[in-house]
């Protein structure tokens, strides 16, 4: 009787197509949907899902070691960045991983295609019913209460035991859409446009206390007005969610604020995922115009590319974040600096997916690219101000392989902008390069905010610049804009100008910045010691002497940066 029962159970399992005979292991899960999402019900079993598999990188630990080796000033290999081929060799999946995954795909009659040059990412389509069976999942429909955004997701999934160590993640599964589309920028009440003033070196125009223009940034941070000379030194600006950079507005901006250079100075357009760049005035994006006007208008003479990412994402809920990095990794000569003014709360993205994207930044950093992101505009409550009981870190600011930029305001002295997102990651620990800085801050902080943040997490932001009342031309009119998205392109412009001097001197561009910033670069940064970033019904973190999770190490001084890099 017992034997017959077992035989019957096996027949039932086969009939249902369930992989019960396989040894499935829980791979990722979350206790509930992110705040703001509600369960609608089970997904239609016949609905087609486009899934992506991320295979394990063959030797990421060695890539990380080499990243720090070429990025640390005291290293004998400082500045000896890796080639495209060298990076690809370290991260391409091993043959054992490829064989294991391909065998599993064949066994389940799945045809997949490779969607990255190294073979790390592959994609395939299956109905919901089969996805549930393959991954012991429960794909359901979830809806965001405020925006109405719907998505089919599962709160957990498993993978065959034999794929552990070979398969990093299945996507999209436990990562939910970002309903607010990354955007960390907001507009201030329109203020009187600042008049351009002549000023002597080191003198800051009085107008800069109320509005920021390129002249203000040049004066505050000792930024030169002379043009860069090295065409190989490129600056990349990313654009998402149909934000278009308008050339006519840029021309108006340069005529008004950079009368010393040609108003015909412009940018190069690069597109992917079906991206475009409409020049219809009414479609000009505040974010896109801000980013382009304050890179072209501050990084004088540096060739600037606007990378417009469309809506045909290959990376799902990442909305092009991974696509743009993969595209740049495929280039033989990617830009030396990449600035992005978009982001989201760390909790909205699964840890495995966040790590995969962060590792892609490490690959680009090893190639000699400085990657900068705005830290967000919600203080300690995340990328945008929100209700919370515990502090909300932002992504990708918690990633240790990029540079997070916070915001300041005011002159003589600068102080922290109260919206400047900062804090400590829940996904990554404190990297070695900032361990002393974080430890010193936490000792000074004491028990303030105890239990509301991860005291062992990677701290952010790393640096900051002005971020309040930037004059931006949008569809012919001047608007005042606030946000850390003002700060990231500003800092990126300064680094691009430093790189120009380095390349002209026969040296390498700075590449991954943080090991330099937390060592030799500290002397070139203005320490910000006042202000805080409130949120979650608290005053947030206070700015203090040295590094702090509001303004980072401080704001840049171009002349001192040149000294710090040996020029």
TrEMBL record:
Active-site residues, record numbering mapped to chain: 287, 291, 485
Entry-linked PROSITE patterns: SEDOLISIN (PS51695)
UniProt main location, coarse: secreted
Ranges where the Peptidase S53 domain occurs: 211-567
Catalytic reaction(s) noted: Release of an N-terminal tripeptide from a polypeptide
Listed GO biological process terms: proteolysis
Domain of life: Eukaryota
Residues spanning the signal sequence: 1-17
Keywords, comma-separated and alphabetical: Calcium, Glycoprotein, Hydrolase, Metal-binding, Protease, Secreted, Serine protease, Signal, Virulence, Zymogen
MF annotations from Gene Ontology: metal ion binding; serine-type endopeptidase activity; tripeptidyl-peptidase activity
This protein's name: tripeptidyl-peptidase II
Necessary cofactors: Ca(2+)
Intracellular or extracellular location(s): Secreted, Extracellular space
InterPro entries, alphabetized: Peptidase_S8/S53_dom (IPR000209), Peptidase_S8/S53_dom_sf (IPR036852), S53_propep (IPR015366), Sedolisin_dom (IPR030400), Tripeptidyl-peptidase_I (IPR050819)
Cofactor binding notes: Binds 1 Ca(2+) ion per subunit.
Pfam annotation, one family: Peptidase_S8
Role: Secreted tripeptidyl-peptidase which degrades proteins at acidic pHs and is involved in virulence.
Positions bound to Ca(2+): 527-528, 546, 548
Organism classification: Eukaryota, Fungi, Dikarya, Basidiomycota, Agaricomycotina
EC number per UniProt: 3.4.14.10
Keyword Methyltransferase in annotation: no
GO cellular component: extracellular region
């Amino acid at each position: 009787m017992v034997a017959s029962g077992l035989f019957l159970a096996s027949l039932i399992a086969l009939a249902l197509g369930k992989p019960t005979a396989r040894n499935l292991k829980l791979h990722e899960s979350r206790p509930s949907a992110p705040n703001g999402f509600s369960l609608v019900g089970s997904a239609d079993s016949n609905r087609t899902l486009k899934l992506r598999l991320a295979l394990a990188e063959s030797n990421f630990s060695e890539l990380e070691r080499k990243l720090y080796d070429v990025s640390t000033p005291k290293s004998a290999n400082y500045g000896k960045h890796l080639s495209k081929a060298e990076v690809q060799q370290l991260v391409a999946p091993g043959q054992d991983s490829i064989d294991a995954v391909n065998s599993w795909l064949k066994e389940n009659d799945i045809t997949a295609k490779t969607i990255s040059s190294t073979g790390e990412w592959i994609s395939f389509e299956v109905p919901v019913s089969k996805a549930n069976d393959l991954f012991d999942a429960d794909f359901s429909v979830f809806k965001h209460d405020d925006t109405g955004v719907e998505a089919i997701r599962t709160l957990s999934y498993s993978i065959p035991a034999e794929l552990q160590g070979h398969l990093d993640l299945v996507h999209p599964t436990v990562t939910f859409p970002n309903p607010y589309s990354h955007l960390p920028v907001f507009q201030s009440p329109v203020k009187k446009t600042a008049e351009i003033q002549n000023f002597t070196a080191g003198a800051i125009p009085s107008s800069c206390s109320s509005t920021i223009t390129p002249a203000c940034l040049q004066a505050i941070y000792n930024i030169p007005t002379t043009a860069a000379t090295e065409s190989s030194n490129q600056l990349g600006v990313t654009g998402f969610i149909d934000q278009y950079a308008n050339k006519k507005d840029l021309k108006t901006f340069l005529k008004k604020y950079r009368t010393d250079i040609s108003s015909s100075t412009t940018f190069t357009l690069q597109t992917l995922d079906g991206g475009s760049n409409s020049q219809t005035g009414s479609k000009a994006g505040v974010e896109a115009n801000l980013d382009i006007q304050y890179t072209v208008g501050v990084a004088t003479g540096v060739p600037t590319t606007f990378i417009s990412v469309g809506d045909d994402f290959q990376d799902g809920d990442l909305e092009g974040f991974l696509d743009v990095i993969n595209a740049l990794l495929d280039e033989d000569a990617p830009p030396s600096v990449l600035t992005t003014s978009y982001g989201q709360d760390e909790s909205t993205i699964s840890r495995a997916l966040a790590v995969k994207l962060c590792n892609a930044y490490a690959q680009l950093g090893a190639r000699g690219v400085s990657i900068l992101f705005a830290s967000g505009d919600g203080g300690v409550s995340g990328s945008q101000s929100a209700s919370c009981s515990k502090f909300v870190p932002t992504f990708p600011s918690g990633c240790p392989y990029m540079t997070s930029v916070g915001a300041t305001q005011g002159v003589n002295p600068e102080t922290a902008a109260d919206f400047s997102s900062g804090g400590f990651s829940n996904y990554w620990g404190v990297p070695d390069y900032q361990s002393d800085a974080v430890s010193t801050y936490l000792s000074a902080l004491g028990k303030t905010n105890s239990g509301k943040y991860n005291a062992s997490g990677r701290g952010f932001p790393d640096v900051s610049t002005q971020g309040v009342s930037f004059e931006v031309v949008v569809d012919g009119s001047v608007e005042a804009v606030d946000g850390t998205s003002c700060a990231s392109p500003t800092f990126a412009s300064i680094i691009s100008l430093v790189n120009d001097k380095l390349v002209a001197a026969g040296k390498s561009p700075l590449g991954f910045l943080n090991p330099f910033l937390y060592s030799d670069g500290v002397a070139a940064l203005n320490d910000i010691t006042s202000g805080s970033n409130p949120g979650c019904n608290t005053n947030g973190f206070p700015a203090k002497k040295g590094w702090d999770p509001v303004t980072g190490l401080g704001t840049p001084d171009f002349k001192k940066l040149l000294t710090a890099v040996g020029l």
